[in-house]
């Protein structure tokens, strides 16, 4: 029987290797005019990068976002970013095509 822990494999050459480019500061800002699912996907991906806050501008305030969930409320005919409900730990907002729950807090430094 062969165990994976016994086989260190073949080291990959570093010649020709590339690394992903870092995100720009602007890319850490969510755009609440995007569709709800796209907003959730982008936010979730950005949250994997520790050390840099994911931000969104909501009702004129900068928010540090720690989680984005889709909400099953029907979309309304209001501007994206409109707040439907203020929560103890975030807000429920209109996006381009739906409703999303953003967990986070207002960033007093911005």
Explained architecture:
The protein is mostly beta strands and 110 residues long. It is 10% helix and 33% strand. A 6-stranded mixed β-sheet has the order 1-2-3-6-5-4. The longest helix has 11 residues, at 36-46.
Give the key terms:
single chain; 110 residues; mainly beta; Methionyl-tRNA Fmet Formyltransferase, Chain A, domain 2; six-stranded mixed β-sheet; 10% helix
Helix-strand layout with pairing:
Elements: E1 29-30, H1 36-46, E2 54-58, E3 61-71, E4 83-87, E5 90-94, E6 99-106
Parallel strand pairs: 1-2
Antiparallel strand pairs: 2-3, 3-6, 4-5, 5-6
Short summary of the structure?
By secondary structure, the chain is mostly beta strands. The protein has one helix at residues 36-46, and strands spanning 29-30, 54-58, 61-71, 83-87, 90-94, 99-106.
How would you state the average pLDDT, rounded? 86
Number of domains: 1
Percent range of helical residues:
10-25%
Strand/helix succession = EHEEEEE
**How large, in whole angstroms, is the Cα Rg?**
19 Å
Under CATH, the topology can be stated as Methionyl-tRNA Fmet Formyltransferase, Chain A, domain 2
Biggest β-sheet description: 6 strands, mixed
User: What is the structural class?
Assistant: mainly beta
Q: Please name the CATH architecture.
A: Roll
Q: Span between N and C termini?
A: 58 Å
Annotation field: number of helices: 1
Strand segment tally: 6
């Amino acid at each position: 029987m062969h165990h994976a822990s016994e086989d260190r494999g073949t080291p990959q050459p570093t010649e020709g290797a590339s690394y992903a480019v870092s995100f720009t500061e602007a890319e850490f800002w969510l755009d609440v005019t995007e569709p709800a699912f796209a907003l959730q996907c982008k936010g979730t991906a950005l949250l994997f990068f520790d050390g840099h806050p994911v931000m969104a501008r909501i009702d004129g305030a900068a928010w540090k976002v720690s989680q984005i969930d889709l909400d099953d409320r029907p979309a309304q005919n209001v501007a994206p970013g409109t707040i439907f409900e203020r929560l103890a730990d975030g807000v429920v907002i209109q996006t381009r095509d739906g409703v999303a729950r953003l967990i986070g807090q207002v960033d007093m430094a911005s």
